[in-house]
Amino acid sequence: MADSGWSAFLRVLFALAIFGVAVLLWKLPWHRWPSSSLLSIVPLAFSMLMAYEWLIGMNPYVYPLGFILTYVWIGMALPRWVPWAAAPLLLLAYVWPKLGETAALQATVIAVPTCLLVAEVIGPAMHRQRRSRDSQARRADLFHRVAQAARHINSLEPAAVLDEITTASSQLGFEMACIVRVSARNQQGELASVFGMPATETGQILAIDQGIVGAVLREGREQEWHRQRMREEGCPILAESDLSTVLAEPVWNSGELAAVLVVGHYRDTAITDDEKAALEILALEAAAALSNAELFDVERRQSAAYRDQSRQDALTGLGNRHLMNLLLPKIAPDDVLLLLDLDHFKSVNDRLGHDGGDQVLVTFAEFLRRELREGDIGIRIGGEEFMVLMPRAGDNVRDVAGRLLDRWRAQSPVTTFSMGLAVHRTEWSPEETFKRADEALYAAKREGRDRLSVAGESETDHSTTA
Asked: What are the C-alpha distances in Å from 241 to residues 175, 235, 265, 319, 430?
């Protein structure tokens, strides 16, 4: 009775242990474990079956079922070679507890082949499923990285777009990436951006009638080359880089080849179809980004040209009143305002006509551009009135202004000019400084013209008069 109770207890204990192992294998992510870790479970399962049979004994119908279920798991979880490699261990584990039982040994002829058959049926299907799952996971990861890279290719600077394209290529797992800007008209390309080629400098000019870039240009499609072909065809730059495999993807812009994206591996590894598809998508994104960047660059240049035109006097090329209104509020302490007015300009127009008067204005504007210091800004306010803004002019500003008068006189001009000067102070508003310079200009005219008058001084600076 005691033996019967002890046997029942062991049955329950072993049953719980086996159930626990089964649940553990079911819950744990064993499909993600390396094969070396999973192989250790096989002898453990066989040992538990053997121990159960030795100590307790199983129903003759249940005993082979335990091995069959173990082989079901082997077929599902392990590589295809494992069921056959584990066959000797299976045979030993199945037979050893049954030595001396003729019927059990005879059942081995059916049980062991059944286990192998089950594993062989399940194994290929599970292997295909795992391979498909791994492939889908790799593809999803690859295209996720493409999507992330595409979001970053959004700079509105063409050069920055090219750098981001090569960076995105490296994020796809390629060990080298470069992009060549193509000029089919000049039959040359520029190495615009490089990753993974430290000995190569950007800005190099390449002939595009040879090498992998030339092949893309001739055939209009992607090219995949290996080390041998790069050496045989003298592919510029790449032949000396010891790359194993390269893939060149065309980047189209409005139907024309704008660039060629070249990626590659130094390792002896093939470029997969998924990587090719990802790179093709990246090239399409790059083409759109490059097109937008170039369009924005053109619009920006046009905008800058329009902006400059809106701030430029059409006749003299100096700044105009609009520019004066922009700069005057930004005047800083110790900046100097010079207001200049051509003397007796009405009589000049009367004598020379308006075309002649315009020529005098143009000549005077050229004189200011030539004689002003770097950083000084000349502006035509209107008519024959001009303004010069002299940032941080310093203490010698009177000498600078005086030299303007002297050098203009030295040209024997059609007419002279008068000048009013005001130095901006912290306590003054820009408008007040302008008003003081204007008052100084009128003081110079009242006192005989062809001279400089400084705001805040009671007398005109006679050292600059004729």
From this structure: 12, 10, 10, 54, 63
The type of residue at 324 is M
Statement to judge: residues 370 and 415 lie in one domain: yes
User: Which residue bears the tokens 């001279």?
Assistant: 451
Length of the chain, in residues: 466
327 shares its domain with 382: yes
Element (DSSP H or E) covering residue 367:
helix 345-371
What is the phi/psi pair of residue 388, to 5°? Answer: -125, 125
Report pLDDT digits (tens) over 50-61: 766 666 666 666
Give which of 40, 48, 39 is closest to 21, Cα–Cα. 48
Residue bearing tokens 């474990």:
33
Greatest mean pLDDT among 113-117, 122-126, 344-348:
344-348
Residues 126 and 240 in one domain: no
Q: Which of 41-45, 139-143, 330-334 has the highest mean pLDDT?
A: 330-334
Consecutive H or E run containing 258: strand 256-265
d(CA 163, CA 193): 6
- Please state, in angstroms and rounded to a whole number, the distance separating the CA atoms of residues 262 and 178: 5
Residue 271 shares a structural domain with residue 332: no
The tens digit of pLDDT for each residue in 200-258 reads 667 777 777 778 888 888 888 888 888 888 877 766 667 667 788 888 888 887 778 88
Q: What is the DSSP letter of 97?
A: G
Domain-ending residue, one of 238, 267, 301: 301
Could you tell me whether strands 417-423 and 452-454 are parallel, antiparallel, or unpaired per DSSP bridges? parallel
- Token couple for 16: 């719980």
Considering the domain architecture, whether residues 211 and 344 belong to the same structural domain is answered as no
Give domain status of residue 373, yes or no.
yes
Residue 435 structural domain? 321-464
Residues near 380 by beta carbon (within 8 Å), at least 6 away in sequence = 313, 315, 316, 318, 319, 320, 321, 361, 365, 386
444 within some domain: yes
Nearest Cα neighbor of 184 from 213, 224, 222 is: 213
Instruction: Examine the domain organization and report whether 169 and 259 are in the same domain.
Output: yes
In a domain, 162, yes or no: yes
Tokens of 377: 């800004």
Residues 294 and 327 in one domain: no
Distance CA 91, CA 71 (A): 12
Number of domains in the chain: 3
Same domain, 416 and 296: no
